[in-house]
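Here is a typical sample entry:
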Amino acid sequence: PPWRDARIGCAPHQGSILLDKDGKRKHTRPTFSGQQIFALEKTFEQTKYLAGPERARLAYSLGMTESQVKVWFQNRRTKWRKKHAAEMATAKKKQDSETERLKGASDNEDDDDDYNKPLDPNSDDEKIAQLLKKHKPGAGGLLPHPAEGEASA
């Protein structure tokens, strides 16, 4: 069939043959038109893999060879996987930093275990003084209880 003909080209320079210094045919990289790329991208959005007949029809409709379509899809899948892997790495990094931030907050809570425990009125005054020094003003009303015999206002 005509769409399987490898001589059908897509590049503007398809008629010109480049030769290397030894006179052998030189491989030229095809340049696809915007319309071809648009159609390839739209097809890629729908399916990441093309079966032989689908690839042949697409190649024929775009004026490309099957091998060009095949290689384009291979390259596009590679690009898609790299982008997906980068997005996953970014999401993991974000999650790890959030976990670390939360862990840091819980570490501070561990440091404040003594602070968060209810005060024992029978404990020594030194411990209460240390806890009061640790207290940050405005973080909640921790006030010392008046000693026995002192009048409260």
In short: Residues 66-111 form the longest helix (46 residues). Helices lie at 34-46, 52-62, 66-111, 113-116, 125-134. The radius of gyration is 36 Å. Residues 33-90 form a domain with the Arc Repressor Mutant, subunit A fold (CATH 1.10.10.60).
